[in-house]
Amino acid sequence: xxxxxxxxxxxxxxxxxxxxxxxxxxxxxxxxxxxxxxxxxxxxxxxxxxxxxxxxxxxxxxxxxxxxxxxxxxxxxxxxxxxxxxxxxxxxxxxxxxxxxxxxxxxxxxxxxxxxxxxxxxxxxxxxxxxxxxxxxxxxxxxxxxxxxxxxxxxxxxxxxxxxxxxxxxxxxxx
Length: 175
Hints:
Elements: H1 10-15, E1 25-30, H2 36-47, E2 50-53, H3 64-68, H4 71-76, E3 80-84, E4 89-94, E5 102-105, H5 112-116, E6 120-125, H6 128-139, H7 147-161, H8 163-166, E7 169-172
Parallel strand pairs: 1-5, 1-6, 2-5, 6-7
Antiparallel strand pairs: 3-4
């Protein structure tokens, strides 16, 4: 995969899971700050796939589980609502192709239901300290007051769905 060291063969691995005559649906999950978005962006570019980031779908800081309800429809090509983080309200709609390749990334993306509808499932593994440092460096004061609220939702998702067990590939992410 171009620019995605240390996984140069990741796009080929994902494509190898595409059913004959079908489309690729890759789902990337992991904790905040693990590197999901960067990895997914490069993978989507390499595959020529549409990228859906759950950051655009979560309905606010308490919305990790609520975003999961949209996953089957996103995968089916029904699209999804978007969230305006500044004004704290729904702000629009994004169409998703029912035929084109698709990469979905975000914490909460990998559940038993979404895994059953996907062709490739990936878990981004990185220690909690490094993830928190990276997430707060990236998002700063906008995320800082919400870190614990979000982390509690991540832990609930992990406890309920154990997404690393649903992943066909667990990627130890570089710090």
